[in-house]
Amino acid sequence: MLRLVAHIDFPFYTPKDAFPVGGAVRDLLLGRRPTDLDYAALDPEKAAEEAKRRLGGSLFPLDPERGHYRLALRGRTLDFTPLEGRLEEDLLRRDYRLNALLWRQGAVFGLLGVEEDLRRHLLVPVREENLYEDHLRSLRGVRLAATLGFGLPQRTREALARHARFLQAHPEALPARERVKEELARLLLSPKAAYGLRLLERVGLLGVYLPELVLLVGLEQGGVHHLPAWDHTLSAVHHLLWLWPEAPLEARLATLFHDVGKPLTRRFDPEVGRFRFLGHAEVGAEIARASLTWLRFPKDTVERAAGLVRRHMDRLPEERKALRRFFLRRQDLLPDLVYLMAADRLATRGVETEAWEVLGRYEEALKDPLPQRPLLSGEEVMALLGLREGPEVGRALKALLEAQAEGRVGTKEEARAFLLYWRGGREAQASGTPDHPH
Q: HD/PDEase domain location, by residue (predicted)?
């Protein structure tokens, strides 16, 4: 039987014979402003068309055979689906009690137990068998726990763990990769991403969706590390968001995958008496690229995350000119790379000053912005050095840009003098002349 949960105003347009349901109603009860609205309607197509006449936007069918329609507005989407039987029957088919809510005539109605879920901030399935009606629902539960900051009581964890074992045994039941990608991205973009990732591991879903990372669980590192590899990874994700709350998805993905190469590169070194992980950044970059590609992340996202993983072990030079040259060569990965390095250091030994040192040196080195282009064009370089189009022109432009970053060159006249000097050095090196200045 439906229960009256609360009396609230629904601040959005509601077509006739359509009922706001699910996450939008939940968010209003939690004091959040929803952006995506779901409606259960007696006639979804008619309700969607009525909303379009009133609100404008673009209307298109998501699944016309099942009666699913979407109205896309600027900054908001309205989804319309058929009302499945009576209102209570419709709610009983949903995933979690917190999503089994509907608004009608100024009141919110839900299922038995939802008041306790709201009061205690817990996530409980409507029925365990509902998880098997859409196999994405267990992953969505973990994502909701992270994004809402809710807990998973023991019986919910047990239900999700059983579903995870089912998916491990029946890979053909796995949801579409695009849907998995969206849930993982939303989990990582939440402020409690590390908490969500821990839940993912605890209920067994890490092995379902990110099996490459399972090998980190319990992997002892030794040396300067005070945590096993998976705990270190979660600590790094947590500290990335502490240092940089607005970190983009690519930085979060790179932090999640930054040590994924360690299980494959772990070797005992008798000279130092401990295990080492030589080359794990390069191996990890390839694993991250393969995993994120499989999950259908956009190519730009994949390449940036893999590039960050590959470079996260690079050592910062001590001297300022060399440091500016270091950042220039990695300019396309900034500032993500610096924050990843800082979070990694903080998670390694828990020494906060080491993280701030990395960020402080970055800010100090870039008080003067890095140059974005050489002072001379390719044509000017060819005329000055008597070169034809080819790799040597690119090398000259790169050397000039680095000299600008170091502060050795600031005008076109200095750029010409530098390139003549640079050419002389290359010619002397090629001929083996020992006394040419370098």
A: 225-358
Query: What does the pLDDT look like over 256-289, one tens digit per residue?
Result: 999 999 999 999 999 888 889 999 999 999 999 9
Q: Is the pLDDT of residue 438 over 50?
A: no
Structure tokens at 38: 């779901």
* Residue type at 277 in one-letter notation: F
What b/e sequence results for 310-338 when a residue is b if at least 16 CB atoms lie within 10 Å of its CB, and e otherwise? bbbbeeeeeeeeebbbbbbebeebebbbb
| Token pair of 281 as six digits | 């950044």
Kindly provide the residue ranges of all beta strands, DSSP E only, lying in 22-57, ordered along the sequence: 36-41
Return the biggest CA–CA distance within the chain. 93
b/e map 370-395, b = 16+ CB within 10 Å: ebeebbbeeebbbeebebeeeeebee
Q: What is the 3-state secondary structure (H, E, C) of 407-425?
A: CCCCCHHHHHHHHHHHHHH
Q: Are 279 and 261 in contact (CB under 8 A)?
A: yes
What's the CATH class of domain 218-367?
A: mainly alpha
> Domain 1-117: what homologous superfamily?
Beta Polymerase, domain 2 (3.30.460.10)
Cα angle 362, 259, 293 (rounded to 5 degrees) comes to: 100
Q: For tokens 């000039």, what's the residue?
A: 400
CATH architecture of 121-212: Orthogonal Bundle (1.10)
Token pair for residue 164?
Answer: 């995870």
pLDDT at 434 over 70: no
Domain boundaries, the chain: 1-117, 121-212, 218-367, 378-431
